[in-house]
Write a structure and sequence with these properties.
Layout: E1 3-8, H1 14-26, E2 30-35, H2 40-46, E3 52-55, H3 62-67, E4 73-76, H4 86-91, E5 95-98, H5 104-119, E6 135-139, H6 143-154, E7 158-162, H7 168-172, E8 177-178, H8 182-187, E9 191-194, H9 208-213, E10 219-222, H10 231-240, E11 245-248, H11 255-258, E12 265-267, H12 277-297
Parallel strand pairs: 1-2, 1-3, 3-4, 4-5, 6-7, 6-9, 7-8, 9-10, 10-11, 11-12
Helix pairs in contact: 1-12, 5-6
Length: about 300
């Protein structure tokens, strides 16, 4: 019998687990759970006899892959998949997938919430400002970026976006301006919302040069990955420019140093973008359905490795 393991240090909600169980067992498969594990060796032991694996932010390393002798597919319940060792999966002919779009609304709402929080001086009695009429730059116009644009337009913001992988006409049809390059994007954004993945090309790519282009009083909003920020450059620019703000959905590696710039700097203690009950359920059910579709029908629509 095909065995599917949910391995989650940070578990799915009970509603999500029940929904996954209904899908997996309804397909005639067996479901196993490993939740809130504290030792990675427990992870190694749990994967030894499974055919399919569902994770959240859990790291599927080469060691995990080597321990999983029967594994055919691993699905990351969420959009980002930098926690999966894609080379190790490919070497063992394991299909790696993500579940794009399932967490998008939750992340987009958090991005707008971050902007309001910073605009209102972190909800202190000090005089704040409004988002209406402000310029919002969107760096990467995928599922999340598009939703951020839609919601920000409803607040009266002027939107400009840059994404070299999406045709300009697909962006402009949403009533969004298209920046010719990143320099134009950063120079014309009172708020800049980041939605790029953490790849070899993007890690530490948001550096001093781009940050220094941002207008007076501008705010960088990061609901993507902390790895895309050059954190030494961030510390430098915040020290030099007392008007600049940075809010991020995961504490920076140099968080203690950046805390000296609070309230212009704020970080959530844990990544919160997908932490809604709706996103939790959506991503889990999508992962289960993708596994069933792959095992039964060979569908690899959301495959992310070679």
């Amino acid at each position: 019998m095909t065995k599917v393991l949910i391995a989650t240090d940070k578990p799915f909600s009970p509603v999500a687990v029940n929904g996954i169980r209904n899908i997996i067992e309804g397909a005639g498969f067996e479901l196993a759970l490993l939740e809130k594990y504290t030792d990675v060796k427990d992870f190694y032991a749990a994967v030894t006899d499974v055919d399919a694996l569902i994770v959240r932010s859990d790291k599927v390393t080469k060691e995990v892959i080597d321990a999983a002798s029967k594994l055919k597919i691993v699905v990351r319940a969420g959009a980002g998949y930098d926690n999966l060792d894609l080379d190790a999966c490919t070497a063992k002919r394991i299909v790696a997938m993500n579940t794009p779009g399932q967490n998008s609304n939750a992340v987009a709402e958090l991005a707008l919430g971050f902007m309001i929080y910073m605009a209102r001086t972190c909800f202190t009695p000090a005089t704040g400002s409004e988002l209406s009429g402000k310029r919002l730059g969107i760096h990467a116009y995928g599922n999340v970026g598009r939703l951020v644009a839609q919601k920000a337009k409803a607040l009266g913001m002027d939107i400009i976006a840059f994404d070299p992988f999406i045709p300009a006409e697909a962006i402009t049809k949403d009533g969004v301006k298209v920046a010719k390059n990143l320099e134009e994007l950063y120079s014309n954004s009172d708020y800049l919302s980041l939605h790029i993945p953490a790849t070899a090309e993007t890690k530490e790519s948001i550096n001093y040069n781009f940050l220094s282009l941002m207008p007076k009083g501008a705010c960088l909003v990061n609901t993507a990955r902390k790895e895309v920020i050059n954190e030494a450059d961030m510390e430098k620019i915040l020290a030099e420019r007392t008007d600049l703000k940075y809010i991020t959905d995961i504490a920076a590696g140099n968080n203690d140093a950046l805390m000296a710039f609070a309230p212009r700097y704020f970080a959530t203690p844990k990544k919160m973008g997908a932490q809604t009950s709706e996103a939790n359920v959506n991503a889990g059910l999508a992962a289960a359905n993708q596994i069933v579709d792959f095992i039964k029908n060979g569908v690899t629509k959301f495959k992310v490795n070679k």
